[in-house]
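Structure tokens please, single chain.
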Amino acid sequence: MTTIRGAYPVLITPMTQEQKIDWDGVKNNVHYFVDQGVAGIVINGSTGEFVSLSKEEKFQMVATVMEEVGGRIPVIVGTAAETTKETIEYTKQAEAHEAAGALIIPPYYMKPKENEMYHHFKEVSRVTNLPIMLYNNPFTSGVNMSTDLMLQIGKECENVRLIKESSGEIDKVRDLARKGKGDFEVFCGAEELVMESYFVGATGWISVAGNIVPKLVTDMYNHFQKGELEEAWAINDRILPLCTFLEGSGKYVQIVKRAMELTGNAGGPARFPRLGLSPEEDEKLKELLASLETVNN
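Here you go.
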């Protein structure tokens, strides 16, 4: 089984001006991230606009990316859906293409109760051998999973082996890492609490900023693992304004897509109703990228 640790950029879905997926751009971006030395990548996640993609597009994304990666790095596939049946279908397709894991947020419209979330993950875990990364993000799913529920799912659902904690509650990262040790590992999902999450036991980061500064987020994790804390904190301090902009803007998808374009990669527009950056937001992004330029060189 592939070891899943480190900083994993959660990739955008590049598109043309006609809002069709730019498949050549997908392939080019994959090679860019591999060349940057990232630990792995995530596709069909929130940053990849998975709720705006058709079933056929999501399936094709998995097939295309897995072929381009060619086993060079692990790929985690977002397989979440509004129903358990659909989630199972997406997860089985990812497993058939030999993905490293499945990232699954609870059903994101119905606001399921705790027993419904438990049943959901139990059923998906029962029919796949793919490692599942449970994803707690109350801002997008509408439900904030309790620590006790996540611990129960992680202990009783055999294939739930990772948890992405994105509530911004650092005590949840701490308690999950300590109480769930041996059952699952915890990944940071809050862009502004990465070093703090590493200190309380997180073993990785599903990173939006990693699209823009993949080498920096990778170096930051590696420095921390080596005990080179001053170096890790220095990178954290440098990228924190970017992380804050991503978290607070409400336009993280558009920001990343524009940044990819500005750095010579494939981005394009987001699918409507998401609109592009305002002139002020675009200027702020350019200023942030300029401040990071010397670190990237």
